Amino acid sequence: MAERTDGTGAATTEATAAAATGAAMGAAPGPRPVGVRVAARGPAHDLRAVKVVLHREMLRFVNDRTRMASMLLQPVLWLFVMGTGLGSLVKNSIPGVDFRTFMYPGMISMTVIMTGMFSAGSIVWDREFGFLREMLVAPVSRGAIVVGKCLGGALVATGQGVVILAMAGLVGVPYAPSLMLTLLAEMFLAAFTITAFGVTLAARMRNMQTFFGLMQMAIMPMMFLSGAMFPLAGLPSWLHLLTVVNPMTYAVDPMRQAVFAHLDVAPQAEAVLNPGVRWGSFEVPVALEAGLVAALGAVLLGVAIAQFKRAD
């Protein structure tokens, strides 16, 4: 039976008109039509939409074990293979510190960033298979869909980072509760920002190949220039400038400072491995770094919502 919806959200059916015509002609009344009511738009309705999109992102990730394993393999290889190899080269210049301990915050960042970007890329899959169009025509705001995507990607990326967090003891990082909670909060902040960045990129993409190419072009320079794999002390001025303008630097450095605050490291080694970020002679505090990452995440979320509103 075909249905039509009026402007107030209450649905009428063709059976209504047929029943009225039959009554006018003296025929026996037929079955009464069943009314369909569409929920009114509002903050509570959008909040339910955010919850549904977030839940879908979590289910998609949990059911994709291949993706979970592949996302973990790369940072583990970097940490235990590359870290061990590079550590043997620089062990005389940083006595008393395992180079893998230095790389550990960087590998957490890499895990979170890669997972967040892949979560954002699911938008392109949804567009290719037509599911995104179904979400866009649903009676919910497009902003709610974007917020759900970003929160879902951030939670998935943070969950993946927790697995790397569980390996802390293997590289000499203590399982101090305050350190674990600090790293969790910083991981979620970085994950939300990078997922918002990914959603901004993916909002207008038509195929996955283009998105992957653009993602690699954007992510790899940001990772290499963030201090995740080498110390930021003693860099040439041009390279130091690139690290300072790289937003990922302000996501990696707070994690490294949190880790080194719980280690007993000689001042000379800490000056080399954990110099912090400097704007000239001003050392950027961790709170300001976190604020910059949060502000960037808010801006990217706004841009992603604007992009989504323009998408067809």
UniProtKB/TrEMBL annotation:
Membrane-spanning parts: 68-90, 102-125, 146-173, 179-199, 211-233, 286-306
Listed GO MF terms: ABC-type transporter activity
Protein name per UniProt: Transport permease protein
Chief place where the protein resides: membrane
Family: Belongs to the ABC-2 integral membrane protein family.
Keyword annotations of the record: Antibiotic resistance, Cell membrane, Membrane, Transmembrane, Transmembrane helix, Transport
Keyword Transport: yes
GO terms classed as biological process: response to antibiotic
Keyword Repressor annotated: no
UniProt subcellular location: Cell membrane; Membrane
A single Gene Ontology CC term: ATP-binding cassette (ABC) transporter complex
Organism: Nonomuraea muscovyensis
Domain ABC transmembrane type-2, chain residue ranges per copy: 66-311
InterPro entries listed in its UniProt record: ABC2_TM, ABC2_TM_bact-type, ABC_2_transport, Nod_factor_ABC_transporter
UniProt topology in membrane: Multi-pass membrane protein
